[in-house]
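Long-time lurker, first post. I've been practising inverse folding by hand and with some scripts of my own, and I keep getting stuck on stretches where the structure tokens seem ambiguous. Below is the full token string for one chain I'm working on. Before anyone asks, I'm not after the true native sequence, just a reasonable design that respects the backbone. If someone could post their per-position residues I'd love to compare against what I wrote down in my notebook.
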């Protein structure tokens, strides 16, 4: 940042608040209007069983996952995916 190695990209630092809980990943295909999502997945995080050990940073994932209820999937589509697609279409 000091040497401006990345140009103006280093002019601003964003600090996000810590979010506690489980992570759910969606892979969705869109045509500008319609959204079709694959079954949501969860990443493997810790290297050892029972969430022990260091974070592996991408050792795979599993799906389906019990945290992806129909209600949660509908909420993600309604509050995140659809508004994103609508916004992209307007641009």
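-- Answer (accepted) --
I ran through it position by position. Result:
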């Amino acid at each position: 940042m000091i040497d401006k190695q990345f140009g103006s990209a280093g002019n601003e630092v964003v600090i996000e608040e810590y979010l506690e809980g489980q992570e759910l990943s969606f892979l969705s295909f869109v045509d500008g209007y319609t959204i079709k999502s694959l079954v949501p997945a969860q990443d493997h995080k810790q290297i050892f069983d029972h969430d022990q050990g260091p974070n592996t940073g991408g050792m795979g994932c599993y799906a389906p996952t019990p945290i992806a209820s129909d209600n949660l999937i509908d909420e993600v589509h309604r509050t995140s995916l659809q508004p994103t697609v609508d916004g992209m279409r307007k641009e």
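A couple of notes from the structure itself: Strands lie at 28-30, 35-37, 42-43, 46-48, 52-55, 61-62. The mean pLDDT is 88. Happy to go over any region you disagree with.
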